[in-house]
């Protein structure tokens, strides 16, 4: 009897031990599952943080490039501006771009705040612009010393922008990560940021006496006259624009209403498919993209391309158009043409045309500016002479040509101007002087960039 009791107790102990082991295993499994879940959530949170940080860094990098480009352009133009109003416009631009650039730069060096040399330079640049603006408001003038400082600012900003832009190929590569790169002290990006704190950029010292454009969407398209046309009339325009056969199968559908009512069309040509947008009102060609013919052994020059564009627009019914700008990029001439009346270039009536350098044929066009601005105008005679207008131009610009031009102004207006072309060293400028008041209205700088000649 006693042996049975002992045996029963042993069995109970064994069962209890097994139950305890099972419970411990279950509890361990629960904790393991919780640990794995927590780690997974932590890993997911890290991934979300990395993605957010990477997105912020990339946005800051490209914004920094944009703002430094604007800062360089405004400071450069300011060195050749002479009118008070135009100078104050560029000073406002400098202040705005400097503020934005400082915010972008702080994203990469948050611990340094405004103590770094580059941050100090950018902030001082903005403050210097505010100082000059206040000086002009009080009846003062931009001194030779001020101009020298502006020259130094432009040079320093150009060097910073060039250095940052040189990293773009690396940034755009598939495996690049700002999060990882900024942790590596020997990475190109980290070395570049450090170079701004060393001697690689010659920052100017700021010495002065004090402490630190229009939307088309809301306008009436003036050139769109007459009633809305049907699809048959639209097909006739497409045939004329694309040079397709009269019996070609043309797909027509209603287009976007972003600007005005249009037809979006597609048609097959001997060289490939063409895409044409036609305004419903008046059957006016708005834009098109035509296929290029096979390349030939010949290559036309800019003058020939301009003639091709002028002839093409004349055949489409755009009368009196003159090529005013041509730039070659990726084997295509990009040509701006404006209407001309009584020897005056009408810049508001602008049409953009693309001509293939090999084929010598038009491959694209866009006429929105012409559509919104073209109308019959009565042009008043200038009240100041060309010689009087030239007096408004900075002495640092060597003028080589001049012509009358009607230019768009802020608020949707237009002004008759003298368009002066000149140089300052290697820089090329177009300066526009009001033909009525004799004041500078606008300065445009010619840039020889990766995409051909550009205006800034």
3D architecture notes:
The structure is a single chain. This protein is of the alpha+beta class and 456 residues long. The chain has 3 domains: 52-195; 231-373, no CATH class; 386-455, no CATH class. Helix content is 43%, strand content 23%. It contains 11 helices and 13 strands. The chain has helices spanning 2-78, 84-106, 117-137, 144-165, 168-171, 178-181, 188-195, 231-242, 302-316, 368-373, 386-390; strands spanning 250-254, 262-269, 272-279, 285-289, 321-329, 332-341, 344-356, 362-366, 398-408, 414-424, 427-434, 440-449, 452-455. Strands 1, 2, 3, 4, 5, 6, 7, 8, 9, 10, 11, 12 and 13 form a 13-stranded mixed beta sheet that branches. It is globular, with a radius of gyration of 33 Å. The model is unreliable at 38-42, 199-203 and 205-218 (pLDDT under 50).
Rg of Cα set: 33 Å
Uncertain spans: 38-42, 199-203, 205-218
Helix content: 40-55%
Mean pLDDT: 76
Please count the beta strands (DSSP E, at least 2 residues each). Answer: 13
Specify the number of helices.
Answer: 11
Strand content: 15-25%
Task: Give the biggest beta sheet.
Answer: 13 strands, mixed
Helix-strand category: alpha+beta
Shape: globular
Domains (count):
3
What is the CA–CA distance across the termini? 109 Å
What pattern of helices and strands is seen along the backbone? HHHHHHHHEEEEHEEEEHHEEEEE
């Amino acid at each position: 009897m006693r042996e049975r009791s002992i045996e029963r107790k042993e069995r109970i102990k064994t069962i209890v031990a097994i139950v305890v082991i099972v419970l411990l295993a279950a509890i361990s499994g629960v904790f393991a599952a919780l640990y794995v879940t927590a780690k997974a959530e932590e890993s997911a949170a890290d991934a979300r943080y990395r993605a957010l940080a990477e997105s912020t860094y990339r946005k800051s990098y490209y914004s920094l490039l944009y703002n430094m480009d604007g800062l360089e352009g405004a400071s450069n133009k300011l060195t050749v501006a002479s009118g008070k109003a135009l100078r104050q416009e560029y000073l406002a631009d400098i202040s705005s771009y400097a503020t934005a650039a400082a915010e972008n730069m702080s994203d990469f060096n948050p611990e340094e705040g405004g103590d770094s040399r580059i941050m100090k330079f950018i902030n001082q640049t903005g403050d210097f612009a505010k100082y000059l603006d206040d000086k002009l408001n009080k009846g003062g003038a931009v001194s030779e010393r001020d101009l020298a400082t502006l020259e130094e600012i432009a040079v320093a900003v150009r060097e910073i922008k060039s250095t940052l832009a040189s990293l773009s190929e690396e940034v755009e590569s598939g495996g690049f990560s700002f999060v990882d790169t900024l942790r590596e002290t020997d990475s190109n990006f980290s070395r570049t940021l450090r170079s701004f704190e060393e001697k690689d950029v010659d920052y100017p010292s700021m010495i002065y006496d004090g402490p630190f454009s229009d939307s088309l969407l809301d306008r009436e398209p003036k050139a769109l006259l007459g009633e809305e046309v049907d699809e048959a009339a639209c097909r006739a325009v497409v045939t004329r624009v694309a040079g397709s056969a009269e019996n070609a199968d043309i797909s027509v559908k209603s287009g976007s209403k972003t600007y005005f009512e249009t037809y979006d069309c597609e048609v097959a040509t001997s060289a490939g498919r063409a895409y044409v947008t036609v305004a419903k009102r008046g059957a006016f060609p708005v834009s098109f993209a035509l296929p290029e013919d096979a390349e030939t052994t010949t290559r036309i020059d800019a003058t020939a391309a301009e003639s091709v564009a002028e002839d093409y627009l004349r055949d489409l019914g755009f009368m009196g158009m003159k090529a005013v700008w041509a730039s070659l990029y990726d084997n295509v001439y990009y040509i701006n043409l404006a209407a001309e009346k009584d020897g005056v270039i009408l810049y508001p009536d602008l049409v953009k045309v693309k001509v293939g350098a090999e084929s010598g044929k038009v491959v694209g066009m866009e006429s929105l500016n012409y559509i919104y601005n073209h109308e019959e105008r009565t042009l008043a005679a200038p009240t100041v002479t060309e010689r009087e207008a030239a007096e408004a131009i900075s002495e640092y610009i060597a003028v080589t040509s001049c012509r009358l031009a009607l230019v768009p102004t802020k608020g949707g207006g237009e002004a008759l101007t003298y368009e002066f072309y000149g140089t300052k060293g290697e820089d090329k400028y177009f300066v526009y002087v009001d033909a009525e008041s004799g004041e500078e209205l606008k300065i445009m700088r010619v840039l020889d960039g990766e995409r051909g000649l550009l205006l800034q």
